[in-house]
Write a structure and sequence with these properties.
Layout: E1 16-23, H1 38-52, E2 60-68, E3 71-80, H2 85-90, H3 92-117
Antiparallel strand pairs: 1-2, 2-3
């Protein structure tokens, strides 16, 4: 039986996106802010460190996952500092990461369909 040909690509409407804050292992010092003013940088680092005690979004790696049926693809962004998930989702990185995860998911699906066509 021939493989069914797929006539298009998944869109944002076709997939479910999830967002997750993961532990960031890169040190805060020297990576949170490089303003050129050591006092300002230290203040930002101290604030992040203090907030991190109760808020993982204060210093994290963000993982955005696009899922369609049993397939999923992820995009990651490290050294992030946000007040909350909602704060992250309002910024432009969220849209960029959704687009990247969707592109990866479409590539994965195309690879599966190409392989099925070889059967």
């Amino acid at each position: 039986m021939p493989a069914r040909m797929w006539g298009g690509m998944l869109t944002k409407k076709d997939v479910t996106f999830t967002v997750e804050a993961l532990t960031e292992y890169t040190q805060i010092e020297g990576n949170a802010l490089v303003s050129g003013d050591d006092a300002i940088d230290k203040e930002a680092e101290d604030t992040i460190r203090c907030d991190l005690a109760w808020n993982i979004w204060a210093w994290c790696t963000v993982k955005v996952t696009a899922t369609w049926k049993s397939l999923s693809a992820d995009d990651y962004l490290g050294c992030c500092s946000y007040s909350s998930e909602a704060d992250f989702m309002q910024g432009g990185y969220y849209d960029d990461m959704k687009a990247e995860a969707l592109t990866s998911l479409n590539a994965q699906l195309q690879d599966i369909l190409d392989a099925a066509g070889e059967l």
